[in-house]
Amino acid sequence: MDHLCVAHRGFSGVAPENTIAAFKLALEQPFVHWIELDVQLSKDGVPVVIHDFTLERTTNGMGRVKDTDWKDLQRLDAGSWKHEQYHGEPVPSLAQVLDLCKGRVSLNIELKTAGDMYPGLEKAVLREIVMRGMEGEVVLTSFERTALRRAKELAPDIRTGLIIDARPDDLAKQLENLQCSFLSMGYPRLDRKLLKDLASRGITVMAWTVDDRRIMRRLSSLHPELMICTNWPDRWEQVFLLSKPRIWHYIRKLIR
């Protein structure tokens, strides 16, 4: 399918976001092509997969991720807030997620930082990726442009992408200056003209975060290669696969 399905923080509509449970559930869906996740550093420098800078919303811990050692993060319950069946689901390390996903799905890894909040984040993340030979299976994205520049300095061939929820007139120029070939944009900012222009420049665009089926259908009409990021991959399936003639295209692809 052209409108590739990106599972936002895993299959986070059902399972607790950014956990192994959510990633495994996403991997069980044959139509999920990408998984998006967030990475920060523990106090002792371990890349960990969690969205918020603080622990309270998605774990039973308190305080900031950056002030907590990896051994203490591992003890936290990152699942009960979603549903009791996920009680005891831990905060995963990036290494654990890479090992799970290698060769199975591509990863959009957001460098979750602000300013100089995480010195060494880019190096630590790249070390885990390179160690597994997964450079071709990932894109590193961030709101923080300095993080993207550092990643490129450390690994010039790594694919990077800007995350933005705005529509500056010189967006294409900004992406060129950052050496980004990927753009992650809030879906209300997108239109046909922008997508056509970016595609002509070799920029892959992902729309986030789209959970409404009607909006998925509308976005699909803007450009055939637009990636769609969703908390509910099963809704993507209902829009793009469970309707004729798309379902037959998908079946033929599976049995080749």
Please characterize this protein's 3D structure.
With 256 residues, the protein is α/β, with parallel strands linked by helices. The chain has one domain (5-255): Alpha-Beta Barrel (TIM Barrel). Helix content is 33%, strand content 18%. The chain contains ten helices and nine strands. It has helices at 20-27, 70-73, 94-101, 121-131, 145-154, 171-178, 192-200, 213-220, 233-240, 246-255, and strands at 5-8, 32-41, 47-49, 106-111, 138-142, 160-164, 182-186, 204-208, 227-230. An eight-stranded parallel barrel has the order 1-2-4-5-6-7-8-9, surrounded by five helices. α1 packs parallel to α3 (94-101), α4 crosses α5 and α8 crosses α9. The two termini are 15 Å apart.
Set out the fold topology.
Blueprint: E1 5-8, H1 20-27, E2 32-41, E3 47-49, H2 70-73, H3 94-101, E4 106-111, H4 121-131, E5 138-142, H5 145-154, E6 160-164, H6 171-178, E7 182-186, H7 192-200, E8 204-208, H8 213-220, E9 227-230, H9 233-240, H10 246-255
Parallel strand pairs: 1-2, 1-9, 2-4, 4-5, 5-6, 6-7, 7-8, 8-9
Antiparallel strand pairs: 2-3
